[in-house]
């Protein structure tokens, strides 16, 4: 379930310069790392807050990201309680295992265009390489490699709001997966943030994205059995399509757990 929660944010792709609250609806089809088959989701962005909803069977899995308060809330539609994470503290902890200075990332136009939902989208090829040390051990280094193609529509409604949100998140060292999952796959968590930053820098909505993520062991050799295990388990593919992009006022109550929910403080 924590993988699914992380992917809810992973697959909700980029959302005209005028400021407006933003609602994006999308579908995804994934394989690997706890996700198999098709699902649907919605993301809501209001200033420096985002709510991500992913349908999982008969439940809705929800994550709320409040950048200014440095809080992340996660809960589902079946329970009247929510986990609360101090993201400033968690980001500091994650930085001990991920050396972003060693990261390599590029997003380059591939010269192709196509029509998607009545919009002209430009094709880009993405490649990100992110090393991370498991448990901070330099002899247990994993490298996450993300590659794929995205189709970006420029000057789409809500672009400025989306860009502002994700750039602020990247500056604060945020992640968009359940922290429990990020602890075991820190490279994946940070590579995902970098993907969104690259999309934001392109200046439009990624209407379609087809990504592959692979994990390889780059340290410890035979003394790194965990690395080999994670490399075999850590590969995934994900195709996403934005179904609609809407702008319009969103209520503040959408960006907090419902009144009466029990709040569980997490570390």
Describe the model.
With 267 residues, this protein is an alpha+beta fold. The chain has one domain: Clam (outer membrane lipoprotein receptor (LolB), chain A). The chain is 24% helix and 46% strand. The chain has six helices and twelve strands. The protein has helices at residues 2-11, 87-94, 159-171, 179-184, 186-202, 225-233; strands at residues 22-32, 35-46, 49-56, 59-66, 71-76, 81-86, 104-116, 119-133, 141-154, 204-217, 236-247, 262-266. A twelve-stranded mixed beta sheet has the order 7-8-9-10-11-1-2-3-4-5-6-12. A hairpin with a 7-residue loop joins β8 and β9. α3 packs antiparallel against α5. It starts with a helix and ends with a strand.
Topology:
Blueprint: H1 2-11, E1 22-32, E2 35-46, E3 49-56, E4 59-66, E5 71-76, E6 81-86, H2 87-94, E7 104-116, E8 119-133, E9 141-154, H3 159-171, H4 179-184, H5 186-202, E10 204-217, H6 225-233, E11 236-247, E12 262-266
Parallel strand pairs: 6-12
Antiparallel strand pairs: 1-2, 1-11, 2-3, 3-4, 4-5, 5-6, 7-8, 8-9, 9-10, 10-11
Helix pairs in contact: 3-5
């Amino acid at each position: 379930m924590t993988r699914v929660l992380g992917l809810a944010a992973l697959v909700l792709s980029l959302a005209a310069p005028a400021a407006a609250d933003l609602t994006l609806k999308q579908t995804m089809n994934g394989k690997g790392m706890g996700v198999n088959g098709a699902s649907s989701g919605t993301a809501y962005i209001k200033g420096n807050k985002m709510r991500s909803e992913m349908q999982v069977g008969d439940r809705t899995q929800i994550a709320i990201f409040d950048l200014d308060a440095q809080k992340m809330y996660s809960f589902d539609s079946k329970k009247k309680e929510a986990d609360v994470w101090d993201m400033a503290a968690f980001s500091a902890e994650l930085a001990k295992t991920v050396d972003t200075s060693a990261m390599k990332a590029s997003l380059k136009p591939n010269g192709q265009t196509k029509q998607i939902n009545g919009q002209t989208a430009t094709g880009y090829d993405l490649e990100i390489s992110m090393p991370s040390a498991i448990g901070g051990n330099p002899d247990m280094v994993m490298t996450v490699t993300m590659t794929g193609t995205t189709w970006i529509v420029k000057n789409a409604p809500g672009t400025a709001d989306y860009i502002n949100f994700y750039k602020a998140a990247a500056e604060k060292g945020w992640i968009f997966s359940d922290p429990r999952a990020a602890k075991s796959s820190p490279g994946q968590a940070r590579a995902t943030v970098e993907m969104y930053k690259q999309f934001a820098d392109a200046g439009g909505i990624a209407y379609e994205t087809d990504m592959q993520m692979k994990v390889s062991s780059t340290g410890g050799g035979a003394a790194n059995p965990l690395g080999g295990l994670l490399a075999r388990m850590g590969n995934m593919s994900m195709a996403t399509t934005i179904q609609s992009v809407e702008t319009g006022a969103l209520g503040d109550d959408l960006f907090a757990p419902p009144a009466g929910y029990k709040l569980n403080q997490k570390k």
